[in-house]
Amino acid sequence: MGRCKDGACGGAVGAVGVMGAGRPGGCMLNNWLWFAGGLVLLLVGGRLLVAAAVDAAQRLGVSPLLVGLTLVAWGTSAPELALNLISASKGRGDLALGNVVGANICNMALVIGVAALISPLAVQERLIRVEIWLNAAVLVFLAVLGAALGLPPWAAGTMLGVFVIYSGWTIASAIRASRAAPTPAAADTLGPDPARLNPGMGWGLIAVCFVVGLGLLSLGGSFASDGASGIAIGLGVPAAIVGVTIVSIGTTLPEMVTSVLAVRKGQTDLAMGNAIGSCLFNAGCIFGIAGLWAPVSVEGPLVVPMLYMGGLSLALVVVSRTFRNTVSRLEGGLLLGSYAGFLAYSAMQAG
Known about the structure:
Elements: H1 13-16, H2 28-60, H3 64-76, H4 78-89, H5 93-118, E1 121-122, H6 125-149, H7 153-179, H8 184-190, H9 194-197, H10 203-235, H11 239-251, H12 253-264, H13 268-293, H14 300-319, E2 326-327, H15 329-350
Antiparallel strand pairs: 1-2
């Protein structure tokens, strides 16, 4: 990635030198470059997965809300999954847990806040009745359990089991809905079939995008994990703090881009479904698999972020029912303000 100049390297550069680039304790400049390069690969890979998922769902005739809750949410959370699985396999459970907590905070405060500022987000009754309550229950459970007991090993298995049951039920509901053919009168009210107007990619290209996207996610996750760990060591900051701030913002960029584009196209249900679905995926699938792969422990710096995460999930229960079931611009601004305060607190903790 290039040579380091005087003052640009971490404390271990004398022994590691340029060959330590991208490794914990190596050159600080190179650690940042590896981290940034990894994020680029993660974003490109996630973008390919999202494109493949959306076109596949369009061809299957699934509603935008369910697309956002499942395929788009899973695709945009793929960078977190790749990063955390690789981090867990390298024994960096604190970085993985910090990224899960930080990504959920970003989804609820940053992504929803920015999207609501662009245009008020109408919340469908399905989200209010099921996903928003489930999201609150899961994240509050994780926050309280983490603060009280430090997330024992069975917590990861429980979260993964809840996610599998929820996903199975959601997919089954989508399949039943897609098989229910509309009546001629209903077909007239629905208008032209969007799949015919914009067929998108064929199944062959969808499969190519899926495979290439997974490959880029794997490579990018390795680069970003090594770079983030090296940055934490070089700055003397706990890896959990790096994971809950810098890494989580980077890996949440696919959700941000997808939600903003969806809002600008008037698909606010897709934006909300993407954010909430990503939270459920992070807490259930990513934490579940990573926690079973490498046991994690809740260190002191993570207690407040976990409690903030749980508080945000409860706030969304209230916010989703105000202003006629709409997240207003005022509420979006309040969410962003709370996130700015959280970043300020994290900076003080790092200092």
